[in-house]
Each structure stands twice: as structure tokens, then as C-alpha cells.
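Quick one: structure for this chain?
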Amino acid sequence: MGRILVSLASGLVFGLGLVVSQMVNPQKVLAFLDVAGNWDPSLAFVMGAAIPVAALGFALARRRQAPLCAEAFSGPVRKAVDGRLVAGALIFGTGWGLAGFCPGPALAAFLLAGTPALVFLAAMLAGMAAFTAIDRYLPPAR
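Got it. Here's what it folds into:
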């Protein structure tokens, strides 16, 4: 039960951060990505503030043998940059640039933004299903 409550609290804090920082507003995100036009640099400050907080969290985690709510830390299993990673990053970035949403903010915006977030979430789920269907035909990850 403790893990569930910690997970719920973490998700709520993360979602609140997305709302406060306006990451749930597709127009704000698209204006940030429009570096050649009417660029809005305010989300760079959000990222700039997040980096020291994350660095502190990683530094504190390195001092522990295990996380508070799990038996062991779980990090990435592969560290190589391969074609699958690059293709996934390109698809993610293209979707983010076209829609102004990425998965976390879209979930947080669902209640606030209504239809646009719902359309994005439906398209995201369809893309995930399509990947699952074709993944067996792709070369295995190394």
C-alpha cells in the first residue's frame, strides 16, 4: 500500500508541475519549439530549474543501496545508441513538434484541454499498438 501511495503522490506532484509550468499547453510548447519564429524561451527556464533538482536526486540516490520503495534500482539495460533508439526519438520529436503534446503532459492535460489531448492520447495508443504489432518483424535490439 505504501508503494501505491508514494506512486500516487509522485504522479500528482509531477502532473502539478506540468500544469504550473504550462507544459500541458500545446501552444506554449509549440512556441518554445519555434526557434526560427516567435520563440518563447520560458520552458527553457523550466528545464534549467529541473536539471539541478534531478542532479540532486541522482546524487542522493547514489548514496543509497536501494530505493525507499523497491528492492533495487532499475536503470537502462542498454547504453548504446542504435537505430531503434534514433528512430524512436525522431518519431517522438516529430509528434511533439506537430501536436505540442508528449505523453506525460497529454495525460495531465486531458481534464484541462479536452478534445485535443484526447485525440493525441488516442493517436499515441494507436501508435503503441502498431509498434507492438510490427515489433516482432524488426531486428532484435542489441
